[in-house]
Specification:
GO molecular function: fructose-bisphosphate aldolase activity; zinc ion binding
Protein name: Fructose-bisphosphate aldolase
Radius of gyration: 18 Å
Largest sheet: 8 strands, parallel, barrel
Low-confidence stretches: 1-12, 156-168
Distance between the termini: 27 Å
CATH superfamily: Aldolase class I
Order of helices and strands: HEHEHHEHEHEHEHEHEHH
CATH topology: TIM Barrel
Enzyme class: lyase
CATH architecture: Alpha-Beta Barrel
Pfam family, one: F_bP_aldolase
Mean pLDDT: 88
Strand order of the largest sheet: 1-2-3-4-5-6-7-8
Helix content: 40-55%
Number of strands: 8
Number of domains: 1
Catalytic activity: beta-D-fructose 1,6-bisphosphate = D-glyceraldehyde 3-phosphate + dihydroxyacetone phosphate
Structural class: alpha/beta
Length: 301
Amino acid sequence: MTATNGTNGTNGSHAKLQGNKAETIVNAAYNGKYAIAAVCCYNMEGIIATVRAAEAKKSPALIQLFPWSIEYADGLLLHAAQEAASKASVPIAVHMDHAQSPKIIRHSADIGGFDGIMVDMSHYEREENLSLTKELVQYCNERGIITEAEPGRINGSEDGIADTVDMEEILTTPEQAEQFVALGIHWLAPAFGNVHGQYGPSGPQLDFPRLQRIHEQVGDRVRLVLHGAHEKYFQKDLIAKCISYGIAKMNINGPVNAAFTEVGARLTGKVPLTKVVEEQTNAMQRVIEENMDWLLSSGKA
């Protein structure tokens, strides 16, 4: 079932960025046959919950911010994430998820603080996607930042990502994966039936033979990452299966932030605001810890 064992990412067309924390964390997960929780954080509570969960579980982790965090808070959340990661007792890196414009990617690379940036040009037509991705990957790599890209299209929508629900679904092929690896990326997010946000009544319809072919084609040079891993479906057994096909990083978004909003709705106006914030953070931490157990990263720091 498991495809070819890859190296630690030193070979292939992309540059290994010396000392890059995100690359080191995810390469170690791949080689250790576990995966890293990449937690999408929209506020301080999410950042704190991620670090506390990682320390409690002795697990590496990624704090993920969307471009919205830069646009909304003028970099303040990034500074908080960077400081939290640097003070943590376990390895934690800061990554930007789904950066969908050349302007925000260049700005994010220039302001410092990101270990990785997802160069998501998947909403452009194929040739422009490839051209822009190559240019922006080089821009990031020159600044010591690793890059992630999405060949094909992962349908659906969630906060911070352009809605692609009406676009024709395009699944990633090994040939497309090869094209993107040639652009210099470090992480590849394949589309193999996974979708952002909620799945339909039948749940995920994942094409594992396709994922295996992609892994066999490029898994010795880049790490494969999973988007659209909603906790309702992606629990212990399914996550373990994804890891066996080479997935080394999994995005966690909806369930963590649903815990935050549920606690706020239940407690706001009934207890002091500080208590609401503390309980929201605790609820998010519990979800993240559970996912770390499923990802087999607990105890790996």
